[in-house]
Queue: 2 jobs
Job 1
Amino acid sequence: MLKKKNSGTNEYFVDYSLLFIVIFLVGFGLLMIYSVSSYKAFASTGDSAYFLKRQAIAALLGLVAMIVISFVPYQWWKALAVPAIAVSVISLFLLYTPLGLTRNGATRWLGRGAFSVQPAEICKIGMILFLATIISKIGRNAIRSLRAAVIVIGTGVILAVLIRLISDNMSSAVIVLGISVVMLFVASPDYKPFLIGGALGLGAIAAAVYFIDSTSQNGGFRFRRVLAWLHPEEYSDSGSFQTVQAMYAIGSGGVFGKGLGKSIQKLGFVPEPQNDMIFSIICEELGLFGAFAIILLFIMLIWRLMIIASNCEDSFGCMLVSGIIAHISIQVILNIGVVTNTIPNTGISLPFISYGGTALLLTMSELGLALGVGRGISVGES
Amino acid sequence: MSKEDRSTRKAKSNSNRTTRKTQKKLAVLFFMVLLAFVLLSVRLILIVRDNGEKYKKQVLSQQKYDSITIPFKRGDITDRNGVLLATSNKVYNIILDPKVILDKEDYLEPTLYAMSKYLGFNESEIRSVIADNPSSSYIILKKNVPYSELQNFVAYCDGSLEDPTESDNNAPDKVKGVWFEDKYIRYYPNGSLAADAIGFAGADNNGTGGLEEYYNETLNGTNGREYGYLNDDSNLERTTIAAKDGETLVSTIDANIQSICEKYILKFNQENANVYREGAGSNNTGVIIMEVKTGNVLAMASYPTFDLNNPRDLSAYYTEEELAKMEEENTLTQAYNTLWRNFCISDTYEPGSVAKPFTVAAGLESGAITGDEVYNCTGSLEIGGHKIKCHNRYGDGLVSVQRSVEISCNVGLMYIAQAIGIDRFTDYQRRFGFGLRTGVDLAGESRTDSLVYTADTMGPTELATCSFGQGFNVTMIQTITGFCSMLNGGYLYEPHMVSKILSSDGSVVETIQPRVLKQTVSQSTCDKIIQYCNGVVTDGTGKTARPAGYAIGGKTGTAETLPRGNKEYVVSFMGYAPADDPEIAIYCVVDRPNAQHQDDAKFATGIVHNILTEVLPYLHYPMTEELSEKEIAELEQLQIDLQTEYTQVVSENDPETVSGNEGAEDGSAGDGETTTTAEGADTASGDGTAAESSEPVWKSFEIDPETGYAIDPNTGDLVDPETGAVVGGSSFE
């Protein structure tokens, strides 16, 4: 299963499967971005490849970053744990400074001109690094203690609250919190607390949804998103327009789709189809077949990451890759969940595929870390 | 960890390796992720399975592939000088969409603000409309609004109009849910002018009556389309095929002449309203003016008329109670059809004595008479067992052909018809167009083929009555068309209302040339007919038709209607000008004038007199006759009237009116032309070959100073002192 590479006297593991899955996903993403965005790009900029070019540059940079990072011995990153979390928090607060960029009414970006980055994205990778270090320091027994749980989950909660309050970004907050929970789950040998916690959490969500739905008739517009999720057709001219249009795209695609490039919904009905809703256009153009292919790719990606985590030399590497698994799977699941109206609409991009240069760069860098961890696995005969 | 298990997998060397427990956890995590993906996949399958077809249609329907229709503009109708008679204006319906407005709380107030300030709506009214229909998306607030009234609102919404008002509601970007639908509506700038001839078209661009119906296809264009399609690069392209606007009709009508005609028709009907019976001055009044040498119609007017912009408004002719009753009885349609009917081409009637020139022309042309004949009128002629009377029951004595036309002697004409014979008579009727449609380019021309006799159905009695215009039916357009052919050398032109068809950009698509259908009579016959008809106006029954300063010719007609003896008449005058070289012909028919004694052609000659007094100078015909003092006064008065824009009805014409007089007897005299000129009777000096043997018997009758009529001492009948015609008489037993 593991590939071996003979390089002089040292034998070490290079996960080519993972590498090629990532490259394939990114390449497929570029293809879909071109298909999805060319109409609007041509209409607004006169260059149908406008989004493609920008994303391709980010992909190339990401590929270089991924490979460079994979060559760095991953233990070195431990030293960056505290600076990483510090940078994450500072970057969040920088949103209050003139560096913050406001788009679509929300201040979520830092940067100037063509370059911009979401502090929430930095937080995700920063927290993974920080928590992996902390958990590996705490050790396998101490991790079962309440104190350890409070430290790990607390970090996630604090960051999530900051992200929610400062950048008004609910989805990233959920992802950050989710990552911390998953990392604790992997680190801890216990199941029971997680089962109980999970059950309580689901119960609370169900109760909240029921409450919102039953009080909505005379209530205001505060829970519109939830209501739009529950009753998409009723709110289609306001809250759930995007979701309903995405559903139309999926439904109209059928089993084999309309053919690459032949989406109709991308021509104006799915807003910014190259971003969060790109999966719906993939469904429309390539059908269930294409959608399952993408889901299969992600499953393979996570499978490879799990293999690396299972086989890595130390706890730090394992937790680092676990965090990355958590990050990517949560994001993919939430994205497809939103597109299929399985969960309320919230802005989550599809990793590797959605348009967004810095997000792609950061995700590929994360994969570089995972590859680096994999490289640390010795494959020499005992 | 003390009980640390080593991985069973290969490559175990480090003591800090991932534990089996952690591996298990990772496997659990992976399966949880896998489960999530499976659930999402199921969700995808369900969406496609359950809603795939529905969403497919939804996607196609919300794409505007289905084209938007761009309405064409229906062509204009102008008069011969380019005066707009009918046009189409783009107007807008204001649509309110409360659902959109109520979508967000902060839409309502800015929308209400903008609507009240820039569209002139009452804020509280709109507010209640929105409150009453919160889920509606389509409420027509106002129809047919011109763009000028929307301009400010549109400018305000797109930001090009700055509103300096300091208010939270002054937010153009929050104005939602107000749409405009555009369409064309037909507009008739002159209202009722030439209503029957033009007809009207509704929003569906379908003409009703007149030119609008006859030229419906020409006036209508082709709708344009705007549609979208996916091009080779799978991009949605929108293409517009412009609407092709309809073509413009240039009518032969002259709006000025038309309005002069309508003015005097209306004046007549108003002046004579309620004189003898409730209602207007006549059941119908029609006037056609035609160019003798082309067949082009200069004016075609009739009464009652209606406003083309509001053709369903009957309030001018009926009270509200009557309308409500008609609605109940479903007779409104009937009332509409009566009102919209073009009397000049759709109604048929017996022409009466205006048919006499046709009979004479047939006689001359066929060689049956030479024009030098003299007939002895004894007041009646017995034909086929029937005693058919002349208008003058006392007998006109010896009359020449010309004189019989001038004084409208039935007996003379019956002799002429006998000379012509049934075969030739019916043949000539067809030649002049009686019984045939003229083919005038108007909708609604009546068929008259069953209303005239053929050689097989005509007996000697019918021949006799047809000679003076009783027994067969005609339309106005038929009669004047045939008459023109006797004035222009025998050429029967197809009457025309349209001379040119222009494309929407103004270039000529088609010029409609005058079309000669056939030759009816020869030039020499024409000359004689003109001579006789001139005599009618100078020395006969048509004196009152002559406008001041001009010489004209013509023929009066007073036709009995069915049933005979009902004392209801259709009076008419058919004339032409100038008298020596006719260029325009005029035909005026008054259907059952509102008078006790309807059988008086002066109802028609008066209208013709008034019209020609204005029309002939307008057409730049020089005056040829000397003006009497009375005529000078009349023209001066006319000048004053024109300057005061007809604000008052002046009755300088027709100084004598048929005042109420008892003694409406059972008539037994002729068809009763009466000329009641102020100059008095001077008829004995007929310039024909007829010899007036002695003073006619009716001349000795005492003249009633009140009415101006002579009274027959034997019967008590009122008798016209000039012609001897018994008032209210009939030719038939």
Note: The radius of gyration of chain A is 21 Å.
Job 2
Amino acid sequence: MTRRSPSSALRLHRELTAIWATPPGWGRLKAVNHTTIGKRFMLTALVFFAIGGVLAMLIRTQLATTQSAFLDAAAYAQVFTMHGVVMMFLFAIPFFEGLAMYLLPKMLGSRDLAFPRMSAYGYWCYLFGGTFLVGALLAGVAPAGGWFMYTPLSSATHAPGINADVWLLGITFVEISALSAAVEVLVSILKLRAPGMSLTRMPVFAWYMLIVAGMMLIGFPPLILGSILLEAERAFGLPFFDPVRGGDPLLWQHLFWLFGHPEVYIIFLPAAGVLSTVIPTLARRPLEGYEIVVAAVIAVAFLSFGLWVHHMYTVGIPHVALSFFSAASGLVAVPTGVQVFAWLATLAHGRPRFSVPMLHVFGFLFVFVLGGLTGVMLAMVPFDWQAHDTHFVVAHLHYVLVGGFVFPMLAAAYYWLPHIFGRQPVQHLSHAAFWTIFIGFNLTFFAMHLTGLRGMPRRISTYPPEAGWETLNLVSSMGGFVMTTGFALVALDLLLLAVFGKPFRRNPWRAGTLEWAMPTPPPAYAFASLPEVPARADRLDPDRLGPALAAGKGYLGATRHGWMEVLGVDMVSGRPEQLVVLPRRTSLPLWTALATGSVFALLLFKLYWLALPALLVVTALFLLWTRDCGLRTDLADLPVGHGPDLPHHYQSERPPSYWAMIFTLAADATLYASLLFGALFLWLSAPGWPPGLAIPLGAFTAAAVAAALAVAAVSVRSADGGTAGRLCVAALAYAAALVVLVAFLADIRGAAVRHAAVASVFAVTSYAVLHVAVGLVLSLFCVWRVGSGHVSARRDLDLRLARLWHMFTLVTGLAATAFPFVLNVLTGGAGP
Amino acid sequence: MRRACGFRGALAFSAALPLSGCTGDLSALDPAGPFAAAVADLWWLMLAGAAAIFLLVLGLFLLLLFRPGSGRRVSPAGWIWIGGVAFPLATLVALVGHGLMRGEYILGLAAGGDPVEVEARGSMWHWDFRYSGGARASRGVLHIPVGRTVVVTATSGDVIHSFWAPRLGGKIDAIPGHAATVRILADRPGVYGGVCSEYCGAGHEGMVFEVHAHPPEAFEAVLAGLPDEGEAAR
């Protein structure tokens, strides 16, 4: 191993660029770099924002006058459904994901995210899924049941076309992207930081994103589960939501809002993180109450999972139960108030300067406070009985989401675009653009509160003249077009910035965060060497740090073997503990995403026998990713420029992939818990229980599967000479369990379409089948890795990762085999 | 009730929106019975409170921005604990308690009386109303007596609908497989509008109905003149 002292900053720059940069031309398809992928996410999200905006204009044109004949009711339904779907799933979430991908490694003093190829895969999934949804709209087969797709309107009886399938499959496809981003953000924040950056020194934006990613991990699985169950009902007749066969439409509402409410905070909190970063810089004072703000954000995260029922005040839940959710919904205003007053305290004790981002902070506060106040109103049960599902709610949610997301993102754009483009704004249009949006927005949505209170329900395409809603609607429509003009002005303004802006040297805002301690526009490797962080990471001096880091004076200030190196730190203290070598750029994420997309397309067109081989292709492609992961020889600890030598991550106890596996299993466990609770909910609440038919128990199946899983779990122990043999035993045990489980599924298939109780058993068993199949693949994969020399006593990471899966499969598999027996006891023991 | 509404409506909106008012037979701000009135009162109360809080927060922000240093006398912890914790907590405890009592009142746990029971069955895209267990029925028009609480049980045979007569009380979803109730009450005779307020497919906006509130004696006569279930559906 050769280590050369850096002769000059320029030479180091050239060497690092050769290693990290994305090649031009077709090579762009291989990009995995966080700067590139983050920008792609944001740009694509803006394209979808424009599409969602056009849909909004169609809605406002339709509603501008009474008895409008502009769109018919069926086309209007597709338009309002897709407006919501595009804005929520294809704009808001991907946009902040892109911003977080772009900013986090730079703010944390690292060079990239923990799983760059996963970022690229997530991006392609998002792009293909989004294109698929918008393509369906152009083809006239877009979902049409509203963005929350209530059953039975979205069930096969009432929505026989493929429209609802487009939603279920398209959204699930995009959710894969969101979940992979959540895992990646969690691991990157926890493991890939600058040395010395303990959790308590993290920039506050990283705290926000850490909590948001945790919420996504728990919040998205219920929706994914709901989508799978509804698709299973539509495609195969498993009656989870059909009240005639033991299902319940309310199950969908619970699953949807269990995701849907945290979702609102998942969208708001990254924006609040931006504000907690931007306001202190503009106030020239570090954020006041850093600790209490972090505590408040954690409180919001917890509360947000206890509020979902406030979307369901009118379904007939007892008032006493509603009052609990009402109090919790009101209570969430407290941690939000803490954040707002922490910002005010920062302004009070700082020396605030008025600038374009501050103008958008004003827009945020004005609009979001109003949205929060109407939110507290709606949390009051009796008021919601009147306002629910009217235009009052439409007004409220736009005040919250535009106030809580769009204005902060505009502030973020004006604040960080100089970083992205290396140019400062010309400011000719910025003020006019802001005021146009601000006035247009309030014209549109302030009037809409009154429209709703005067009785106009959501989602109607026409209204009679005598209803007295026309003037208010016309005001809203005119305001909508004013707002659109404003967004066009912003687009033009930002384009002018990118082309004609003044270049600057460094740190134009005099910020104290690390992302400014690098040249702008940022090089692909972000930092030529990594800083040591001695203080809270929003009180640093980028102007002093930048040149020193560029000269290679920090950690990892030299290149070796063409490796893409970053430091892995202890989660809490930030002490360096491993050298993480990231995988090289590759087009595999693109191919894998294409294959994944083809699985969804085949499911959509009901070509199930082709979907199975396509799934195998996806699996094979994912396994190919591992070819350039890991080591074939044991390495000694490596020098990192300062401090003690560190082990290669592949030889360390807890590398990033270990934590990624833990977090993935946490999301998986949430999905499983949602499924089990869903079945219990049906037992408690659905009409048509207890079922009039026997619950299939399968004692032999249960015993055989339990034995096989136990064998598989204990065979995969330490790495020594007998490992490959034991792995083969595990694979055989899994194969046996698979055969028994699939036979059981085939056996109960007929009964599963007759009652939701049996359908639940079918779903729980299918979950076990999937996990056993993955366990089988992982066992064989480990055999391959042993054969290819990747495994030794010091290099047993592959085995340890697989072992986590085997243990998880053992626990969930045992629960799955016990499930029919539990259900049988609960329903009075009608089973054989 | 109408006069009170008009006065406060003018107070709240006349400066900003001269087009506001309390007309239209679907306006929740123009209650025609005590349940809707209780919610309308709650709204005016919350509107006043919300306006005050909004002006306070925005005022503080603008003050701090344009008079730098004006907030230094209060320590950062003071700002956060007083403004961010104590103030919202106190306001919310009062409001949630008040809202809960309003809800209990509307649910009529305290009230006795002799409620009229009707079933409102939503189907794509019309409402059928059944009285006296199906012996009498009407489509598109719900007949109720003035001054007596009416317990409406909402059911559905196809997708989710929602029964809402804004001037008489809150809404309730009609969910297949479930039967939930809402209480409405008219305190004067008249014709009141009703709509389906849960999106239920392409005919959603046409799924309207009328509530005819009759004096008690006239109500019995109207009811007696209604056909039975089978005929009403035709």
Note: The two ends of chain B are 39 Å apart (CA to CA).
